[in-house]
Write a structure and sequence with these properties.
The protein is mainly beta. It has a domain of 132 residues: Leucine-rich repeat, LRR (right-handed beta-alpha superhelix). The chain contains 4 helices and 29 strands. It has a 21-stranded mixed beta sheet. Strands 7-9 form a two-stranded parallel sheet. The protein has a two-stranded parallel sheet with strand order 17-19. Strand 2, helix 3 and strand 3 form a beta-alpha-beta unit. The N and C termini lie far apart (62 Å). This is Podocan-like protein 1.
């Protein structure tokens, strides 16, 4: 059918033309990369020898057809007996993965002068096979991930003047020789190795755009990043032992993503305050105690969309969020915050998710109804696992709020003003509190509420509690002390899911009713 459609549209039917030999190359398979493409993807998996590959593919494709060849999960014991030149193919991409290769004879790789992409990932190579790389003068991408490499020497990538993308992740690399990396690199992945120091190896990489250093044993990045990081857009240095951010970050004006989670950072040190293009800042699982207000850490971060500060030791935000005009997600879970004011998010019109769970918040302040810019529209607010006894009406008028989690607090009652104005609320979780009644839900109108979770409280009776919940579909009231249910509990409730009538389900397990 797809061939017929391509014919009708006047498109070249690449799959039928280029892969007409698919029966002849069995057990290898082939498919066209995409319509109108001149590249054929050829896969040979679980081959018993390289001889079998040669016999299957030799002279099966025209020499002007670009071939992306993948040989995986195969035995290559007879590698020495053949060369890729025997295939008679124009191999532009070559992947040799999961083949248990430990040595690569130079002669085998003859005939790969057009190869731009080489993957040797998931093998057992003790060192970089630089002798075969000389056979590929136009190589742009090299992947030697998860292959047991132990060191990178200054000869490994010598004379590779076109190499732009280098993946060395998941090895056992503990040593980097100075000047071992080609200055042409744009993307470099050194993650999940055993590096304790970068040995000035990256200082001259002025073209670098992405740098992955995650999962190593680095204790400092001071004076180790490119001297001129004008093009660096992404830096991932999570899961190391860093105690501070490198001051050089102040000079990297094109930074868009910074990942420093799972380190030992104590503060930000004013390193990112001028990163105007920064969109993602992940600092979870550190030891950050404060956000410095004297030199506001976020002064010019008006492009920041995602701020992850969970699992730190923050006691206060010091009003530091004000400059973050593009912020969409704020994660502050598992800190030491004792109070949160909704005034802290004043003017953050794009903010949609706030996670304040697992703190020590006992007081909410700063009603949204008093904000100058009421168009702030929080969609999800997580306040579970705190110390709230009352809401003090702080959530009144939080426009656009759809999910509100207040579970695992110390709430004893919901006051008349606590839920007023939450016209978009769909999910309300007040489970694991100390509520004795939900009477206020009969007086407060929540026209969009579909799910109510109030299990593990001290509720004793249900009378007209659902009267203000006209579209409720699920109410979990299990494990309370409910002894009686009023006849007209759900008389004004008509479950609607996606605008269709449904069935109201009330769960009462573990009650005395």
């Amino acid at each position: 059918m797809s061939t017929f459609l391509y014919t009708l549209l006047g498109l070249s039917v690449g799959a039928s033309l280029h892969c007409s030999v698919r029966r002849e190359i069995s057990p290898c398979t082939c498919r066209v990369q995409e319509p109108n493409s001149n590249t054929i993807l050829v896969a040979c998996e679980r081959m018993i020898s390289f001889t079998q590959v040669v016999e299957a593919l030799k002279d099966k494709f025209a020499p002007d057809v670009e071939i992306s060849l993948r040989i995986a999960y195969s035995r290559m014991d007879d590698f020495f007996n053949h060369t890729f030149q025997e295939l008679g193919l124009a191999v532009t991409d070559l992947k040799l993965n999961h083949d248990n290769l430990s040595s690569l004879p130079e002669s085998v790789f003859a005939g790969l002068g057009r190869t731009e992409y080489l993957s040797l990932a998931d093998n057992s190579l003790p060192e970089v096979p630089n002798h075969i790389l000389q056979q590929m003068p136009v190589l742009k991408t090299l992947d030697i991930g998860r292959s047991r490499l132990q060191a990178i020497t200054d000869k490994d990538f010598q004379n590779m003047t076109d190499l732009q993308h280098l993946v060395l992740a998941g090895n056992n690399i503990s040593q980097l020789d100075q000047s071992s990396m080609p200055h042409t690199l744009r993307h470099l992945h050194l993650g999940r190795n055993k590096l304790m120091h970068l040995n000035d190896t990256l200082r001259g990489l002025t073209e670098l755009e992405w740098l992955f250093l995650n999962g190593n044993q680095l204790t400092t990045l001071d004076e180790q990043l490119p001297r001129e990081g004008n093009k660096l857009a992404l830096l991932h240095a999570g899961s190391n032992q860093l105690q501070k951010l490198p001051q050089e970050l102040q000079n990297f004006i094109l930074l868009e993503s910074l990942f420093f989670q799972h380190n030992e950072l104590l503060n930000l040190g004013g390193t990112v305050q001028r990163a105007r293009n920064l969109k993602r800042l992940h600092l979870c699982h550190n030891k950050i105690q404060e956000v410095n207000m004297i030199v506001n850490e976020f002064t010019e971060l008006d492009s920041l969309e995602d701020l992850q500060l969970g699992h730190n030791q923050l006691i206060s935000l010091n009003g530091s969020l004000a400059p973050l005009r593009s912020l969409r997600c704020l994660n502050l879970t598992n800190n030491l915050l004792q109070e949160f004011s909704l005034q802290d998010i004043q003017g953050l019109k794009r903010l949609r998710i706030i996670d304040l769970s697992y703190n020590k918040i006992s007081h909410l302040s700063g009603r949204m109804e008093n904000l100058v810019e009421p168009e702030t529209r929080i969609v999800e607010l997580r306040l579970d696992h705190n110390l709230l006894r009352t809401l003090d009406g702080a959530l009144m008028g939080v426009h656009g709020l759809q999910k509100l989690n207040l579970s695992n607090n110390l709430l004893e009652k919901i006051a008349p003003d606590d839920l007023i104005g939450l016209e978009d609320l769909r999910i309300l979780d007040v489970s694991f509190n100390r509520l004795t009644t939900l009477e206020e839900t009969s007086k407060t109108f929540l026209p969009s509420l579909e799910q109510l979770y109030a299990s593990h409280n001290a509720l004793t009776a249900l009378k007209q509690d659902f009267h203000g919940l006209p579209t409720l579909c699920r109410a979990d009231l299990s494990h309370n002390q409910i002894q009686s249910i009023g006849r007209d509990l759900a008389s004004k409730t008509h479950c609607r899911m996606h605008r269709l009538l449904g069935v109201l389900r009330v769960y009462l397990t573990g009650n005395m009713v």
